Amino acid sequence: MKRDWLIQLRIDKQLTQEQVATKAFINRGYYSQIETGKRNPGLSIAINIAKALDFEPTLFFSEHLNQETLQNEINEYFKNEDIGEILYLYDNFEVKVHHILIFLSSGIERGSYCVIIDSTKNILDIQQKLSNLLSKDIIKNKICFINKEDMNLDMPANVIPFLRDQYAVDKPLRIWLAEKDTDYKQALLDLGNLLNRQAVNLSNRNILFIHSYDAELISAGTHIQMMRNYPYLMTDTEIVDSPFCTTSNKSYVFPSFYIQENME
To answer: What superfamily would CATH give domain 4-61?
Structure first.
């Protein structure tokens, strides 16, 4: 489908296809096919085009997702909350990466420190995409990347200075745990054990915790069991109450923005 909105944005900026393509580090033919809808950009190219034309890069996914919900529910939640325990069952890996980027960038804007626990391959992909959004100094000083296999081992040497210098500060903490067979309490205990070796205490911190999992890799029974352990369930497009959670002390989460508007 032809992307009339993209064409209009370029015209409004008084730019040619060649100029936008150059700014996005692609050739004009590729960019032309993106405008006509014959090709869909990957996340890094979408970010580059969005920078050139000054718009939100996730607009490119609006043909496949409920983008209004994606932006108004999840993005706004990340931009406004410091506390929560959320199970994220994703269907689209690129959308998962998008949410991680918003999770990190919005957290840093709110003064949080961030921990990403994932595979080495995924961490490298996240770091590469994150370099388009944040400076090297911010990434180095505000975000801690940990290979998920190291959670049961000694803390990697390169992480120790970060923990010593940054996590001793009483600031909100954001943790994203990917595809690891544990729950919030156990993951926090594992991370706490690692941090406590550096005399760091998590007990008094505001923590926004997300455990992401590929929805295709788990059975329906495991799906339900995982939802029992988290007050809130996140998909690629929304955050809702977990229907099977038995936790009595749920972290505070705003209701759907759609619901809020109808309550006013």
So the answer is: lambda repressor-like DNA-binding domains (1.10.260.40)
Q: List helix spans (H) across the chain.
A: 4-12, 17-23, 28-36, 43-53, 67-69, 76-80, 93-109, 120-130, 136-142, 160-162, 184-196, 220-228, 257-263
Residue with tokens 């944040």: 134
For the domain spanning 67-245, the CATH number is 3.40.50
* pLDDT the model gives residue 162: 56
- Does the pLDDT value for residue 101 go beyond 80? yes
CB contact at 8 A, 246 and 80: no
Torsion angle, alpha carbons of 221, 236, 251, 247, to 10? -10
Alpha-carbon Rg for the chain, nearest whole angstrom, is 20
For CATH 3.40.50, list the domain ranges present in the chain. 67-245
User: Quick one: which of 112, 171, 181 has its CA closest to 148?
Assistant: 181
Parallel, antiparallel, or unpaired: how do β-strands 113-118 and 173-178 relate?
parallel
Phi–psi pair at 144, nearest 5 degrees = -110, 120
CB 205 within 8 A of CB 174: no
Give the integer Cα–Cα distance in Å for 115 and 104: 9
Does residue 216 sit in helix, strand or coil?
Answer: helix
Q: How far apart are CA 137 and CA 206, in angstroms?
A: 24
Given pLDDT bands bounded at 50, 70 and 90, which one contains residue 259? very low
3-state secondary structure of 25: coil
Instruction: Please report which helix (H) or strand (E) contains residue 116, including its range.
Output: strand 113-118
What angle is formed at CA 114 by the lines to CA 110 and CA 119, rounded to 5 degrees? Answer: 145
- pLDDT (tens digit, 9 = 90+) per residue, 17-28? 999 999 999 999
